[in-house]
Amino acid sequence: MDQRNGLGDGVTTSVLAAPEPVQAAQGAIQSNAWLIIAIPLLGAAVLLLAGRRANGWGHLLGCATVIASFGYALALFSSVGGSEQAARSLHLFSWIPVNSLQVDFGLRIDPLSLVFVLLITGVGSLIHIYSIGYMAHDQQGRTGRGNTERRRFFGYLNLFVAAMLILVLGNSFVTLYLGWEGVGLASYLLIGFWQQRPSAAGAATKAFVMNRVGDVGLALAIFLLFARLGTTQYAEVFARADELSSGTVLAIALLLLLGACGKSGQVPLQAWLPDAMEGPTPVSALIHAATMVTAGVYLIARANPLYSMTEVGQLVVAIVGAVTLLVGCVIGCAYDDIKKVLAYSTVSQIGYMMLAVGLGPAGYALGIMHLLTHGFFKAGLFLGAGSVMHGMRDEVDMRKFGGLYRYMPITFATFGLGYLALIGFPFLSGYYSKEAIIGAAFAEPGWRGWVLGGAAVLGAGLTAFYMTRLMLMTFFGERRWRNRTTSEGEEFHPHESPAVMTGPMIVLAVGSVAAGFLLTSGERLVHFLSPALGELQEGHTVLPHSVIPVLTLGLSAVGVLVAWLVVGRRRVPDTAPQRVSPVVRAARADLYGNALNRAVAVRPTVGLADGLARFDRAGVDGTVNGVASTLGALSGVLRRWQTGFVRSYAMSMLVGGVLLVAALLSVGTP
Amino acid sequence: MNLLLALILLPLLGAIVVALLRGNERAAKPVALGFSLAELVLAAVAWASYRPGGARLQLSGSIEWIPTYGISLSFGLDGIALVMVAVIALLMPLVLGFSWRERLPSERSRGGFFALLLVEQALTVAVFAATDVFVFYVLFEIMLIPMYFLIGGYGGSRRQYAAVKFFLYSFLGGLIMLASAIGAYSYAARTTGQGTFDWATLRGVLADAPTSVQVWIFLGFFAAFAIKAPLVPLHTWLPDAAEQAPIGVAVIVVGVLDKVGTFGFLRYSLPLAPEASQLLAPLVLTLGVVGVLYGSLQAFAQTDLKRFIAYVSIAHFGFIALGIFAFTSQAQVGAASYMVNHSIATGMLVLVIGMIIARGGSSRIADYGGMARVTPLLAGMLLVAGLSTLSLPGTNSFISEFLVLIGSFATRPVFAILATVGMVLAAVYVLRLYQRIMQGPLSGTALLDSAGGPGAATDPEFAASGGTGSGASRLALRDLDGREIGVLAPLVVLIVLLGLYPAPVLDVITPSVEATMSEVGVTDPVTSQGGN
Fold it and tell me: Which residues form the NADH:quinone oxidoreductase/Mrp antiporter transmembrane domain (chain A) (predicted)?
């Protein structure tokens, strides 16, 4: 399908840095699109400011705002209509106007932002509803003052939705940055939600700080764009991208990638995401699986006119994605904590998306497609894990699970469908989206096709292994919880979760099954996205087309089989075996990611700060005081401090000063 | 009557009335608050009558003082001075509200304390309004006297040391500035035959002065301003002053007084020594960036809450210096708005920390822990102040920091990149502080001694629950009361409002910055049609 410019004269524009037609918003629905953001933002304000008065109905308001936003998003979607529409821009007000820098606070409504808005508000609504049940009798949150904690939770969750919508709807890199750090704040607040737990507080701080490292990249990219083009608005930047030198484009691409790595938990900034599982499980599902952590993928897809100009930049993105997807898989195989396994799975799956958007025009739409299907099945998996924890006294150690399918059949069924979707079982959603990425990776020319495609296909096998291991340890086999207790010594009484929780899980499971087929049939999503992302370009794969799916499915089957041999056929020990290979040991230690962070960042900074603190007192202050006291005029002062004549001294000093002025003045007059 | 004169004299009048009433605390307090609120109204009127893009200096007036030397009491405001006057007017009622019940050293009357604060306000307004270089110098020095008594008379245990140190540093800096001012006078006298201290006239004369003359003039002013808005390594008076000063005074010191230094850069250093400013910019930029990194690392390492604030401010002054000397209108507008936003954000941070100290009686960070469960509102306020301090987008400080960095990147990319590291460090020092004081289980001698008793720390159930259930009822620790909420609420509103809609402040500042830029003779490298 051709991209058409605003005049509709049928001129086909090239995919590379296509000047995009942007029209003003039309009609009441489009020109009030800011309501999509404002409603949840208002919800957050009410929930956080109303105090205890809102305890009784806060959760209902929290759900209502997001559902209302979802409804509006659907209306907006239908008003914008088919894929040939140009991007709509909606100017709201001038945000930061200083001479040549004019940052507009406005929205950009185009296929890419619409897809995200629907994902955020749709999955967001489901998770809000689920949270009513999950946070109802939250162990840590009980305060005896009404359900203050649940109200606060919904306030933060609404804040997150609003910030995430600003991130994807903003029409400039600066509004993106506002949403970008806004979701970072919401993530910080929610990871540290149970803030009396030192581990939660530490994880929250870690997440924010590591994200800030990435944000520096994003900020510098914005500075560079302004210095070279004098604008930060998408429309102008993309229209004039060809004025940039290739070095500048590469620098911007790499800086944006740094930001994306921070937000999306990509190597080398991946270590915060698993720790983020300290937050309540609905948070893990919404923020740290379905939406926020995919913002990095959004950023690169959004900046596609720039990335399409730099092959090196694309390659670096693809390599980061490939490395991350393998790192995530390897570590995911080693954990016994159900949420951490899912967290590393998220790291790994976002690696797939990064790999896809790193393939340039061949992959932007595929990355977004995997992002959407992943949004369904990973959110469903996390909600399922939350349901398991809900029935198991917040236990997360899979070695204490086993045989749970009998006790929580709905959770088992929905989780099982999410599992099948994730490992790419034929005709479920993950199959379509992941298969497409693997195919596109193999279509890269030369060694790149082999390396990137090989990593992607190997990852599929590893994914099948760790997810099957999780599935078997949780739902099948011996009921290991029967003779075990929680760390607080309580017995387990597994039970199914209430309908308010299983309902959203069922909806997401349906999505996990059907989304892939629905989005790919007739290339529906790819066509819809083409005005924003350009046409999908297909290349020739280094392997025959028919071989790739067979290879992927074969390796996945091997993964399933090995998992069955390791934890299905044999008894699962109560504690993790200690005599293991160095690879397993490394995987259990996060492949030394945290150790590396401590060695190269944390310890040097702390050491430097402490050293400087001593230096400041002894060195700087000491020197200045020393100089002062050696000066004859001041030695008298110092003596007087001790004798308490300071005040008279101060006055005489002033008088002296005035006299000095007078003296100087008389000298100075001609 | 001239509005500006009223702005200067009203707090002075208030001070006299309050001083007369100081024996009667119940009368003195509301009278002082009333005067400060009236001043706030006056400042609002001044803001409303100010025309951005109008005359360089507005609301001006002049009275001859020492005609022999061309000295007159002349005053006037540009946009930058206006916003600073507004900030003081805003902060003073809040400071008085905070100090309403603050414990003072024995035998000190609150009336006297409030009267001195009002005197300080009058002098600070005057120092921002002065348009005669000599008058500016005199006010710059006189301003130290009430502050000296405020720190030395009402402060902590080492208040005498801190007060003298503060006084000496500033005073000596001022004397060096005086030498420069006299130099400027003599140069004008020699070249035009008519010596003068009038700012506008001097500016015209000195614009053509040889670089060597300008350099000496620049360095003299620089000494005073670099001490005032402390740039490393001239900063060590500030941590001591902030640590020893009463909280309300600390707000004025870091919120307003220090800004006289950065204001001085913009109003005096740049226009009076334009060539030298550009020549020596790398020096100032280096000190600025060193300040950002050094101050941030110091803030991270501090063990005392009040010294923490001082180093945070030192880091922020580094950003302001960077913005001023990068010579783009974005960076300079950023720096000037940073002065406002830093007052609001750091002012709030100091006040919140004061409220923490009022509960625990200690300023050691290690004496606190896990307060959020017991005082959620206080925790929320610390977080809001902290988020503004780390320049989170959506808060007021982001606008300034973003403008400083994006503006300076265009001309000084290396300095800008180094300063950007300060963004990460700010997140570290703010969130670490929040974590230590507010999160985790309730702990710390300051809280447990005053509240739950020694048993609370060892009771495992209490520690595990983080102070819930029966534990909470044992605690005497109060969350914020109505007065404290009233003190903080206006600042919270401004933090959010100016973060999302900064145009009212930017519109006032921008024309003055443009004027300053043209006085220095520099233009923006980046136009909307693209730069270099």
Answer: 171-455
Instruction: Determine contact: B401 vs chain A, CB below 8 A.
Output: no
pLDDT in tens, B167-210: 888 888 899 999 999 999 989 988 988 888 999 999 999 988 89
Nearest chain A CA: its distance from B1 CA (Å):
30
Residue A357 lies in a domain: no
Give backbone dihedrals phi and psi of B199, rounded to 5 degrees, phi first.
-60, -50
Chain B residue with minimal CA distance to A166? Answer: B394
> What's the mean pLDDT in A392-400?
86
Q: Which residue of chain B comes nearest to A50, CA vs CA?
A: B377
Q: Report if residue A392 sits inside a domain.
A: no
Structure tokens at B7: 């702005």
Q: What is the mean pLDDT of residues B480-502?
A: 95
B427 touches chain A (CB under 8 A): yes
- Mean pLDDT throughout B271-299? 94
- Chain B residue with the nearest C-alpha to that of A167: B393
- Name the one residue in this structure whose structure tokens are 């004027």: B515
The pLDDT of residue B134 is above 60? yes
Whether B527 and A96 lie within 8 Å, measured CB to CB: no
Mean pLDDT for the stretch of residues B219-233: 91
CA A482 to chain centre: 37
DSSP result, B207-247: TTS-HHHHHHHHHHHHHHHHHHTTPTTS-THHHHHHHHS-H
Closest residue, chain A, to B514 (C-alpha):
A99
- Enter the tokens of residue A173: 């890199």
CA-based nearest residue in chain A for residue B299 = A609
If pLDDT is split at 50, 70 and 90, which confidence band does A213 have?
very high
Angstrom distance (rounded) from CA B104 to CA B140: 27
How many Å apart are CA A624 and CA B25, to the nearest integer?
A: 41
Q: How confident is the model at residue B458 (pLDDT cuts 50, 70, 90)?
A: very low
CB–CB of A525/A516 below 8 Å? no
Lookup: tokens for A22 = 């942007």
pTM (two decimals): 0.91
How far is A529 from B343, CA to CA, in rounded Å? Answer: 47
Domain membership of residue A606 (yes or no) is yes
Residues of chain B neighbouring A105 (CB-CB closer than 8 A):
500
Using alpha carbons, list the distances in angstroms from residue A652 to A42, A628, A656, B160: 60, 18, 6, 17
Residue pLDDT, tens place only, A304-315: 999 999 999 999
Domain, as residue range, for A632: 593-668
Residues of chain B contacting A394 with CB distance shorter than 8 Å: none
Would the CB atoms of A95 and B189 count as touching at under 8 Å? no
Q: How far is A202 from chain B (nearest CA, A)?
A: 8
Q: Which chain A residues are within 8 Å of B387, Cβ to Cβ?
A: 185
Here the tokens at position B243 are: 């640590």
Give the Cα separation of A383 and B277 in Å (integer).
61
Domain count, chain A: 1
A271-284 exposure pattern, b = at least 16 Cβ within 10 A, e = fewer:
bbbbbbbbbbbbbb
Work out the average pLDDT over B300-321: 94
- Flag whether residue B441 sits within 8 Å of chain A, measured between CB atoms: yes
Q: Provide the shortest C-alpha distance from residue B23 to chain A (in Å).
A: 23
Among A208, A613, A654, the residue with its CB nearest the CB of B431 is A208
Residue given tokens 């005082």 in the structure block: B375
Beta strand spans in B47-125 (E):
58-66, 71-77
Task: For residue A534, give the nearest of A388, A365, A412 by alpha carbon.
Answer: A365
Of B329, B442, B469, the CB nearest to A144: B469
pLDDT in tens, A125-173: 999 999 998 888 654 444 444 578 888 999 999 999 999 999 999 999 9
Mean per-residue pLDDT, B342-357: 95
